[in-house]
């Protein structure tokens, strides 16, 4: 339906994620290496690790130790919010089986990341949370007709004229408010 009229293709949508995943993996590995002083445990590595151990704020003063509660749960909820917003903003109620599977996979992955994030150093979880929060903010901003006009993003057949009102209505109906 949207493929020929809006020059859309699933591969185009996946391309951005495919490009971002290697960067996410590399940065996550770099943070892990800083915490565990890999590959060399020399004086410079010890200095970087010491900086991380005193560089936190608030309830996580040591970025080399796991935060088992606040950041992991916030990360899971942020990722889940991204999935749910994307789901609620789709026009039309008929979704393909693949779309339903993908949505449920990403919902499950968002929840699965909570215990994983509770076991890794806080600097890594904080990076993941910052990345997810940026993604959530970007998704919300790109829904705005004003932002779309500012950046020259043309409207498509799936674009809502009042996206935030539509999202609020979807939230009210989902939670029966």
TrEMBL record:
UniProt cross-references to InterPro entries, sorted A to Z: YidC/ALB3/OXA1/COX18, YidC/Oxa/ALB_C
Checking PANTHER family in the record gives: CYTOCHROME C OXIDASE ASSEMBLY PROTEIN COX18, MITOCHONDRIAL (PTHR12428:SF65), OXA1 (PTHR12428)
Q: How does it sit in the membrane?
A: Multi-pass membrane protein
What UniProt keywords apply to this chain's record, in alphabetical order?
A: Membrane, Transmembrane, Transmembrane helix
So where does this one cross the membrane? 12-31, 69-88, 109-129
Which residue numbers delimit the Membrane insertase YidC/Oxa/ALB C-terminal domain?
7-143
**Organism for this UniProt entry:** Graphocephala atropunctata
The superkingdom of the source organism is Eukaryota
Biological process GO terms, please?
mitochondrial respiratory chain complex IV assembly; protein insertion into mitochondrial inner membrane from matrix
Q: What is the lineage of its organism?
A: Eukaryota, Metazoa, Ecdysozoa, Arthropoda, Hexapoda
Listed GO MF terms? membrane insertase activity
The main location class comes to membrane
Q: Subcellular location, in the record's words?
A: Membrane
Name recorded for this polypeptide: Membrane insertase YidC/Oxa/ALB C-terminal domain-containing protein
**One Gene Ontology cellular component:** mitochondrial inner membrane
Membership in a protein family: Belongs to the OXA1/ALB3/YidC family.
- A single Pfam family it belongs to is 60KD_IMP
Look up keyword Transferase and say if it applies: no
